[in-house]
Design brief:
The complex is a heterotrimer of chains A (99), B (297) and C (628). Chain A has 99 residues and is an all-alpha fold. Helices cover 78% and strands 0% of the residues of chain A. Chain A is elongated and about 50 Å long. Among the domains of chain B are: 94 residues, Four Helix Bundle (Hemerythrin (Met), subunit A); 52 residues, no CATH class. In chain B, strand 1 and strand 2 form a beta hairpin. The N terminus and C terminus of chain B are likely disordered. Chain C has 24 helices and two strands. In chain C, a hairpin with a 2-residue loop joins strand 1 and strand 2. In chain C, helix 8 runs antiparallel to helix 11 and helix 18 packs parallel to helix 21. Chain C is globular. The termini of chain C are far apart. Classes of the chains: A mainly alpha (99), B mainly alpha (297), C mainly alpha (628). At the A-B interface, helix 1, helix 2 and helix 3 of A face helix 1, helix 2, helix 3, helix 4 and helix 5 of B.
Chain lengths: 99, 297, 628
């Protein structure tokens, strides 16, 4: 098996995550899909690290994880406060961008 | 294994890849297709664990462990926690409200995947160097030496980012009390003014026989009172209705007492709790149950 | 010294108009005094001029540079020569007399102070007009007299007819003013200067076409100001103003500004025969037009207005004859200033005594009640019809002579028209005279039921009338005997005797004959038979003449209707074409936006799809570029 398959898998997961972001309305699930996309990227980074034979890709993946953790913290806090004020977890309910 | 890594992988890894990759894709699909957010979260956690295995297989031992500990252990639990907070039962209706959104999204996702595949396929990725050399002194040591030398600045910045995120989360979820808290007297007066449920709500359970919180208390006519049960249970529909059961038990007890005393028809309500519970098979009790039903109608 | 001529009445106007009610009691005396100051200064300058040789009588005074721009030099500078000083004396002299007359005439008017302010303003503007040494400054005076005329015609603005008449005069004058401003612009582009001296010197080197254009524009200006056909319609209505105004502005001075302009620009017309011909035609047509209108009017002032129009027609005709006629145009202008002012003042006096009645059919037999007015009016009448020995005789006779002297067919036609005009003049003036002063009384009570009690006017009114009557009697003879006036003006206007096919005596004889015919006809019609106090229906011509020969109807049909139709069609074009384009653009943009708006549904997911799609397209493009 060629390790390139890891990249294909990463691409597939990324596309699935992106599609999920677009079709789901529950903001938490949308957020999960974003995480899925991030993980797909991480997989690609790790595969690239193997491909290039150095550890930089893993470092980037590591940073991605840290940033993702920070993002989740803030994002979930936003979701909670949004839910408190609107009593809804639907993305579509926050459609005030149109008159 | 390390030598082989340059061009191809071992058969074991291939088998592992194909099996786990299938599971990972299914998990991902389930993540976006499950109706309940909890299920989505669980599926995502599964996918992430599989990804952790892949990290390990790719020589990223540290990352694989971190993936399990941080992602599935911390982040996904945070997700579940928020799901619980927001409402675990709030299942998404999967009916699409924006016209054409689903098809457009699917088309975009599919097209995007095709494009990525094409990109990867076009790239000349024949030479895999493998991590044998990089991992010579140990994967963790290798990472550490990079983080604290080449990437030390980014590392520090990341620390600052984490602190900021923590503070931000606290600020976002913290609610400042803007008005004075109401005193007990004021709250009492308010309730009297609103005029509903002045006394405490009735306790669940019947005749102290069933004292679990999911069992409604019975009214004098034998019907259960919804008020006696916690609102959350009520909304979930998890109330156990034991009204007929209790009456049947009572009848059975009386029947037995009558049999023993050879004195038919006498009712002794103060007989106390029935220890012996083989009542369901009694035909008389069934008949009595029917009578009770008619009476309640 | 020359500036003082203008400054005195200007000061009067400023003081009277800004001074407020405190000046109500002395304002009229102040105004009259300042007019008299102007006259005295004019006299001093005149005597001063008499003491000099004929060639260096021109006085120049440069006051200040008005618009000093590179290549465009406009100065406030005055030029006093024989022509100007003649006008100065006429204007300030007659003006002073009329100021004096107005003291009595306007005695009962609450706004007398303002009236004198306007009169002074008029004097200042008129003096500025005749004293200016360049066309631009002349234009200032020209507009100034227009303004004063507007204010004075509409002086009784509470009467709608007066307000309308003022507006009409102003508007019609605008047409003429436009001609003058275009003429000035043409002069600037042609000669690069406005000064009389420079412009007139440069005419010799300029093409005839341009000069003709300038001449025609100047003629248009003269038509507007002097009420010549086709811009004559305002003068009759202008009689709504107080009578002294009619006498000063609309008989003696302002309406003659056109004649002044043409004579002043004589060099231009001399070099442009076509323009000159146009001038004579306008003069001849107006001469007959005014005379016919004068015959039909029953309103004494309007009859006199028709006469004014006709007499100015004579002057314009004379001015159009070129060097043969300039002198006579000015001479007739001066004598006309005397007798027409006198006639108007007489008419005012009659109205004063008859409760402001203007219909001559309700006069009659007034000679016994108003002897002074009768005598002065009568002298003016004799002067205007050209009774031998009186001033009109000398000046009008010369014009007729000059018309014949033009030579050729033109000369014959113009001469005959002038002769015919003289006959009609005799006719309508006799008619006025008979209807007013002779015959039986046809007095009727006025609207408030007051029976008129005709009486002689106060001294302040009669003295000017007497003085003007003296002028009407003597001026002509004084000017003509020994050709005094001709020699006086010759350095400015030059003179050419022409080549008359008829001898002077023949012309004079013919004039006398037509005079007698006219008077006799009028006497037969009005003197022998009683005058009906309601106007008979009359012939077609009479009816047309009563309506000012349909001039207003003509203007209405041609200008107003035409303008309306033009406006309507423009509005239609605006509504359909312009608005259509604008609204169509707006509607299509609106419709397009309405459709595009639906893309903006406010759902974040929708936007995310488009972003994602955009990224996909970008990647595809990148890949394709790579592949290629």
């Amino acid at each position: 098996m060629n390790p390139v398959n890891y990249l294909y898998l990463a691409a597939l997961l990324f596309a699935i995550g992106a599609t999920g972001v677009l079709i789901r309305r529950n903001v938490i699930v949308v957020f999960m899909c974003v995480e899925l996309m991030l993980n797909a990227c991480n997989l690609a980074f790790v595969a690239f690290a193997r491909l290039h034979g150095n550890l930089d890709g893993q470092i980037i993946a590591f940073f991605t994880m840290v940033v993702a953790a920070a993002e989740v913290v803030v994002g979930l806090a936003i979701i909670v406060s949004l839910f408190r004020s609107r009593h809804s977890a639907s993305v579509d309910d926050a459609s005030l961008m149109k008159l | 294994m390390t030598a082989l890594a340059a061009y191809t992988t071992s058969t074991g890894e291939a088998v592992q890849f194909w099996v786990l990759a299938t599971v990972a894709v299914i998990g991902a699909l389930c993540t976006i297709l499950m109706r309940k957010a909890v299920h989505s979260a669980l599926c995502l956690a599964g996918t992430m664990i599989i990804l952790a295995v892949f990290y390990l297989a790719n020589g990223a031992y540290f990352l694989g462990i971190v993936q399990i500990v941080v992602y599935t252990g911390a982040i996904m639990m945070l997700f579940l926690f928020v799901v619980m907070l927001v409402g675990v039962t709030a299942a998404d209706s999967l009916k699409e409200t924006i016209k054409g959104q689903r098809w457009l999204a699917a088309l975009c996702g599919f097209g995007f995947a095709i494009l990525l595949f094409a990109g990867i396929g076009n790239a000349s990725l024949k030479d895999f160097n493998g991590l044998a050399k990089a991992n010579e002194g140990g994967n963790v040591e290798g990472l550490a030496s990079l983080i604290f030398t080449k990437y030390v600045f980014a590392f520090e910045i990341t620390g600052a980012l984490l602190i900021t995120a923590t503070v931000g989360a606290m600020v976002l979820t913290h609610r400042e009390r803007t008005e004075r808290a109401k005193t007990q007297r004021e709250r009492a007066e308010e309730r009297v003014r609103e005029g509903k449920h002045l006394p405490p709500l009735p306790a669940p359970g019947v005749y102290a026989r069933h004292n679990a919180v999911d069992i409604a208390g019975l009214l004098p006519d034998g019907t259960p009172s919804e008020l006696t049960v916690n609102q959350t249970l009520r909304e979930r529909g998890q109330i156990r209705d034991v009204s007929s059961e209790a009456l049947n038990d009572l009848r059975a007890l009386e029947q037995r007492a009558a049999d023993r005393l050879e004195r038919p028809g006498s009712v002794r309500p103060d007989t106390g709790r029935s220890g012996e519970g083989d009542s369901g098979s009694d035909p008389v009790a069934a008949a009595a149950g029917e009578q009770t039903e008619e009476a309640s109608k | 010294m020359i500036a003082l001529l203008v400054a005195a009445p200007l000061l009067g106007a400023a003081v009277l108009l800004c001074g407020g009610r405190r000046l109500d009691r002395v304002g009229h005396w102040l105004g009259t005094a300042l007019a008299a100051v102007s006259f005295v200064i004019g006299l001093v300058l005149f005597t001063d001029m008499l003491g000099k040789g004929a060639e260096d009588r021109t006085l120049n005074q440069h006051l200040f540079s008005w618009i000093p721009v590179e290549g465009f030099q406009a100065d406030v500078a005055f030029q006093l020569d024989q022509l100007s000083v003649t006008f100065v004396l006429l204007i300030s002299g007659v003006g002073t007399l009329i100021h004096l007359y107005s003291i009595g005439y306007m005695e009962h008017d609450e706004r007398r102070r303002r009236f004198f302010g306007y009169l002074n303003l008029f004097l200042a503007a008129m003096l500025l007009l005749v004293l200016a040494d360049n066309y631009l400054l002349l234009y200032v005076g020209w507009e100034g007299v227009g303004l004063a005329s507007y204010l004075l015609i509409g002086f009784w603005q509470h009467k709608p007819s007066a307000a309308t008449a003022a507006k009409k005069a102003f508007l019609v004058n605008r047409v003429g003013d436009m001609g003058l401003s275009i003429a000035i612009m043409l002069m600037f582009t042609t000669f690069g200067t406005f000064a009389f001296g420079d412009v007139l010197e440069a005419t010799g080197e300029t093409g005839e076409g341009k000069l003709t254009a300038i001449g025609l524009m100047l003629l248009l200006a003269a038509c507007g100001k002097s009420a010549q056909v086709p811009l004559q319609s305002w003068l009759g209505d202008a009689m709504e103003g107080p009578t002294p105004v009619s006498a000063l502005i609309h008989a003696a001075t302002m309406v003659t500004a056109g004649v002044y302009l043409i004579v002043r620009s004589g060099e231009i017309f001399n070099a442009a025969p076509d323009a000159q011909l146009a001038v004579t035609v306008v003069g001849a047509v107006t001469l007959l037009f005014g005379a016919i209108v004068g015959c039909a009017k029953d309103d004494i002032k309007k009859a006199l207005a028709g006469s004014t129009m006709s007499q100015i027609g004579y002057m314009i005709l004379a001015a159009g004859l070129g060097p043969i006629g300039y002198v006579f145009a000015i001479m007739h202008l001066v004598t006309h200033g005397f007798f027409k002012a006198g006639l108007f003042l007489g008419a005012g006096s009659v109205m004063h005594g008859m409760n402001d009645e203007v219909d001559m059919r309700k006069y009659g037999g007034l000679r016994k009640y108003m002897p002074v007015t009768f005598v002065t009016f009568g002298l003016g009448y004799l002067a205007i019809i050209g009774f031998p020995g009186l001033s009109g005789f000398f000046s009008k006779d010369k014009i007729i002579e000059a018309a014949f002297a033009k030579g050729g067919t033109e000369g014959w036609i113009l001469g005959s028209v002038a002769l015919l005009g003289a006959a009609i003049t005799a006719y309508y003036m006799t008619r006025v005279m008979i209807m007013t002063f002779f015959g039986e009384k046809r007095w009727e009570p006025d609207a408030e039921g007051k029976q008129p009690h005709p009486h002689e006017s106060p001294k302040s009114m009669t003295i000017p009338m007497i003085l003007l009557a003296v002028g009407s009697v003597c001026a002509g003879g004084f000017f003509s005997i020994g050709d005094r006036f001709m020699h006086w003006l010759e350095p400015v206007t030059h003179h050419d005797h022409g080549d008359s096919p008829l001898s002077a005596a023949t012309v004079t004889g013919a004039t006398m004959v037509v005079l007698v015919i006219g008077v006799t006809l009028a006497w037969l019609q009005y003197g022998r038979r009683p005058v009906p106090s309601v106007a008979p229906r009359g012939s077609l011509l009479t009816r047309a003449a009563r309506r000012d020969l349909l001039q207003d109807d003509f203007n209405h049909v041609v200008l107003v209707r035409g303008g309306e139709h033009l406006t309507r069609s423009l509005v239609y074009v605006d509504h359909t074409l312009v608005d259509g384009v604008v609204n169509g653009t707006a509607a299509s943009v609106g419709g397009l936006s309405g459709r595009l708006r639906k893309l903006q549904n406010g759902f974040a997911r929708s936007y995310a799809v488009s972003m994602f799609g955009g990224v996909a397209v970008l990647i595809a493009a990148t890949l394709l570029m790579r592949a290629v």
